[in-house]
Input
Amino acid sequence: MELAQLNSILPNVIATAKKAGSFIRKERENFSSDKIEIKGLNDLVSYVDKTAEEIIVKDLQTIFNLAGFIVEENTFSEKKEYNWIVDPLDGTTNFVHGINCYAVSIALEYKGEVILGVVYEVSRDECFYAIKNGGAFLNEKPVKVSANKTLNDCLIATGFPIYNFERLQPYLKTLEFLMRNTHGIRRIGAAAADLCYLACGRVDAFFEYNLNPWDVAAGALIVMESGGKVTDFSLGNNWLFGKELVATNAHVFDVFSWEIDQNFNKKA
Output
């Protein structure tokens, strides 16, 4: 799909993300814990996630009906050459507990490459978006990653493992290194928002494992289009479907990604 075609559908995707976000914001006003379902260990969902996804899928089918879908709540599933990758409510645990950081994430993927991404952070009414080779934006203003050149000047974002604790020891080792060598670590609770905060310079690096495509697809494109770099834990390109991701500004990528690679992949 050409840049002009992506530009033509982007406003409609943004409108869809905001529509779903408006629904989520309204439902949060009267949300109660008896509406929570458990998908797995510490993995929460509610009718809000599912209904928001239905809203998004219906709109996207109209916006670009040649694409299939990879969606979190399985309200629709059909993979094609192009695919919409949708997280209707990234940060469900924050939403359930009334903590202000949760987002709608929509990406368009073509043969394994993300070419359009929109993340709408509901509680702050912030819409981040990018198309491949078109730059990254927040509420219509261009954004760039930070210019910090050393880890000592960096603030790091991460997501704590909530299940599958097999890699806990290298994760804790990495946290210790970062505690000693950076401004600090933040666990915001929504990977899509973490990546967008990196894209606009609020944090300088992010890493997490146990991730799904819908957690990272849109945000990672926004990072790359804002001048950042994205890799998997082995310094490769399998971050979309490989369930692990490292992202940084351009200056600290080598040292940060090397540390992750050494801690998680170094043989005993």
